[in-house]
């Protein structure tokens, strides 16, 4: 069988102690030709500089010399700060997103992912979904004037913690997903319950997981990556799959050798992709 059109990447936050230049060099040394970027750890883009002068920051980033398929844009300083489900944040968030999309276009970054929002004080999940969907619809209208595609990542602690709610948000907002099966697996959903979201994938993260743990060692997890990659291919996905083990306080993901996990996932992808 011929190789799929999917391409391999990793994320700069997978290597939190490394600068962006070091992350790019490590990715290249491992035969991974692309690197997702964001605002965290030693590799962080300067968010305030990017918002003030996105073209200047894009020029700096292009000099690093590696394809950057995706930007993780966080509106506030935390997962709940200025989140998409919080009423009253849309205008400020749109102003920031315009700058982030301008940066992405200038840097040749294909997509920007944001978080859908949390259940804010006084809200239900449905309340949060309604506000988030209105935010995403306005953001999609803005993104339609840019080359970079907008997507959102359903994640643990967001209001969209089930494949059903994530799919509903896609349908209501018209915005696709940055798909990470691990967030749903952690919460007990089976892989075939997550699979329908593959039809709406704009960007994909790869890491192993088990129920109750967002991240697990490659050999010990329950995710079937061959089946996942085939599902994405059959859904027509031709973008990047980005290897994303982490080392951080969020969900207590302190305990894996990320380099070993990157290599295991790289080899898994290459073996499947080569047929």
In short:
Helices cover 40% and strands 12% of the residues. It is an alpha/beta fold and 275 residues long. It is globular and about 45 Å long.
- The end-to-end distance, rounded to whole angstroms, is 5 Å
Structural class: alpha/beta
What gyration radius follows from the Cα positions, in whole Å? 17 Å
Average residue-wise pLDDT: 96
Plain-language structure description:
By secondary structure, this protein is an alpha/beta fold. The chain has one domain: Divalent-metal-dependent TIM barrel enzymes (TIM Barrel, Alpha-Beta Barrel). Helices cover 40% and strands 12% of the residues. The chain has ten helices and eight strands. It has an eight-stranded parallel β-sheet. α6 links the parallel β5 and β6. α3 packs parallel to α4 (90-107), α4 crosses α5 and α5 (125-143) crosses α6.
